[in-house]
Design brief:
single chain; about 160 residues; alpha/beta; Alpha/beta knot; seven-stranded parallel β-sheet; 5 helices; 7 strands; about 30% helix; globular
């Protein structure tokens, strides 16, 4: 299972996603261009001390992401407020890539078209959306739970 961020706008979300990936042994794909300079120093600053533990793959464009070898392994699952099915009714598989759109504008039509499945996270009436990394954590947790792939170690003290 992989976590992919499409052209993220907020460096702190990338840092939190890198920490999430590091802690849950999940590779992270960042599809550029980002809404901020994604330098090595910026990644280290955003991810704090988890940057070295994260398995980060940067892609210069959407086309580069789609042609990457990792993309051939499984389904592309787009999480969107325009999703067709709720997260909890979906059966995840080991090779799935969980994709999240831009914080400011979501995913453009070509990303929706490329997705094998579009899911949403059910929210309380009147709520519009969750933070990007909160959504990623919910989705990744459910996916890892279903495929029995949570890390087995206890948190370090």
């Amino acid at each position: 299972m992989r976590l992919a961020l499409f052209q993220p706008d907020i460096p702190q979300n990338v840092g939190a996603a890198l920490r999430l990936g590091a802690c849950l042994s999940t590779p992270i794909d960042v599809i550029e261009p980002c809404g901020f300079p994604l330098s090595d120093a910026g990644v280290r600053r955003a991810a704090m001390d988890y940057g070295a533990l994260a398995d980060l793959k940067r892609h210069a464009s959407w086309a580069d992401f789609l042609s990457a070898p990792q993309r051939k392994e499984g389904r592309l699952i787009l999480f969107t407020t325009k999703g067709a099915s709720p997260l909890h009714s979906f059966e995840f598989q080991t090779g799935d890539t969980l994709l999240f759109g831009r914080e400011s504008s979501g995913a453009p039509p070509e990303v929706h078209e490329a997705a094998d499945v579009r899911l949403f996270i059910p929210l309380a009436p009147g709520a519009r959306s969750l933070n990007l990394t909160v959504s990623a954590a919910i989705a990744l947790s459910e996916g890892l739970r279903q495929i029995n792939a949570f890390p087995t170690g206890a948190p370090s003290v």
